[in-house]
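Message: Just now I want nothing more than another pair of eyes on a protein record. I am handing you a single protein, as its sequence and its fold in token form. As I understand it, each token names a local backbone shape. Take your time, and here it is.
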Amino acid sequence: MKFEVTILGSSSATPIYNRNPTSQALNINERWYLIDCGEGTQQQMLRFDIKASRIDHIFISHLHGDHYLGLVGLLSSMHLNGRVKPLKLFGPATLMEIIELQLKYSETTLNYPIEFTPTNAEIAQVIVDNDDVTIETIPLDHRIACTGFIFKEKKRLRKLLKEKLEELNVPVQFFTALKKGKDYVANDGTVYKNNTLTIDSEQPKSYAYCSDTLFNPAYFDQITNSDLLYHEATFLNNMADRARETHHTTALQAANIALQTNAKKLLIGHFSARYKSLDELLEEAQSVFPNTELAIEGKTFAI
């Protein structure tokens, strides 16, 4: 089962130094989810072979332009490319007003429906629950209403030991029950314990995406024990006052958050345009939390 994220954009505010505004594509068992959609996201998708036709869920964290200004263009391209299946869109309530205004004045009627779910930046909510994953909002502390998102894998069924099943000539119709943990009773009455015919599936993993936010312990419990934590790290810590003023986080603070929440791995992004090189940001974070990487565009991280 795949569970991996590809970075499409990692810049804050403006595109600069070949870094694009924020966007990520998440592949969970070949279901694709787009997280934020800054300017240029379409080009990045083409560049890194992420097919827009496969994306059925889009999540917008908040309404600062570097997180959503690429959205209307992407929706329009989906229309022009013949999309007819519904698109599920999640974001602040006024996002649909922006989209509808754009479509109104371009006299565009999309070929496909948008199923919009407004997010609430005050409380955590489960907004998606399917066979593979549950997705919850993470209320964050930014200048305007902003949420992160946490993606939690569901526990998979047990894995069959095919050689053992073939050896005992277990009929195919028993496979589903075995995957669910049932014992196998042969025709002669012999009981074969489930753990002799199957093995447990891997433990479910989680990916926490923390968009623009002030360092605030209020959301720490929700992201505790994440297998991969993405956290914005706009500034070096020598600009902590500026980070506080703009409701952003420093690389050092992001590392401390990873440490305090017992993350297995930290991914930092949303880099200020003042940094042409990102080495100092990485070094600062790794001084506290060694298992830190930069959200480099085009790079895919397995979770």
Summary: The longest helix spans residues 95-105. The two ends are 11 Å apart (CA to CA).
